[in-house]
Amino acid sequence: MAERPTSVWTRPQKARREQPTLTRDQIVAAALELLDAEGLDRLSMRRLGTKLNAGATTVYWHVTNKDELLELALDHVMAEVRTPDAAEHGWRMAVTGYAASLRTMIHRHPWTVPLFGSRPMLGPNAARAMDELLGACGQAGFTAYDLEYAQSVVNDYVIGAAGSEASWRAAQPEFSTGDWMAAMGPYLETTAERHPRLATHLREVWAKESRDVMEGRFTFGLGCLLDGLEARSKGLAGDRAEGLAGDGAKDRAPGAG
Questions:
Q1: What percent of the chain has pLDDT over 70?
Q2: Residue pLDDT, tens place only, 132-144
């Protein structure tokens, strides 16, 4: 029989009298420094202990393994994600603000991308951010599973788009689009013979700086997504109205009840 899934949030806290001098917040802060500087693959419990100038026993008192450490680190950076009040600004503005905030957080901490979806996000900061997004999508008219699908498609879009952007920025920090045009120009000439549409498109896109292209692409995609959610929510509202009208007709039918 497989073991039950575990989480740092569900594991009972140890008694305070046993607690070492080093705190959990200090451990998480040091882990974040390593993650932001060197990425997910370079983080290890041994390297963390070395950075803290502490033995493994001290680190393992707070977290039993690297997975628990990453849960804590991910929840810590989720505190940066904020959602405008949907009641005050409307659901579209709220979702737009959430998406922009999550995207900015991912750009700051690209190591978060592989962690999304790997386990339930139960920490206080992630729970608050999720609750705010659910509130915005709920105000749009989504309920039950439709509410789950609506919030999920927003998160999936932002994580995918921002993750791709972060990868590009990390891999090509010193090159401008002009550099790419100069380097790839001869190849584009060859490509144009087989795929003229693609070559023309790439020349047009690379005429602008990649940062401007990414901003436009993200805004365009998010707008399309919100338009789709709005159309879907209106459709659901129409279905509910028809259902209520049908129920009323049944109630008024001869012999009803």
A1: 86
A2: 999 999 999 999 9
Cβ neighbours for 203, distance < 8 A, ≥ 6 positions apart: 181, 188
16-77: what fold? Answer: Arc Repressor Mutant, subunit A (1.10.10)
* Annotation: CATH topology of 79-171: Tetracycline Repressor; domain 2 (1.10.357)
Predicted TM-score of the model (pTM): 0.85
> pLDDT tens across 14-72, in order?
655 565 678 889 999 999 999 999 999 999 998 998 999 887 677 888 888 999 999 99
**Using CB atoms within 10 A of its CB, is residue 119 exposed (0-12), middle (13-18) or buried (19+)?**
middle
User: Would you say 59 and 49 are in contact if contact means Cβ atoms under 8 Å apart?
Assistant: yes
Spatial neighbors of 56 by CB under 8 A, at least 6 apart, are: 45, 46, 49
Which residues are within 8 A (CB) of 65 and not within 5 positions of it... i.e. 6 or more apart?
A: 45
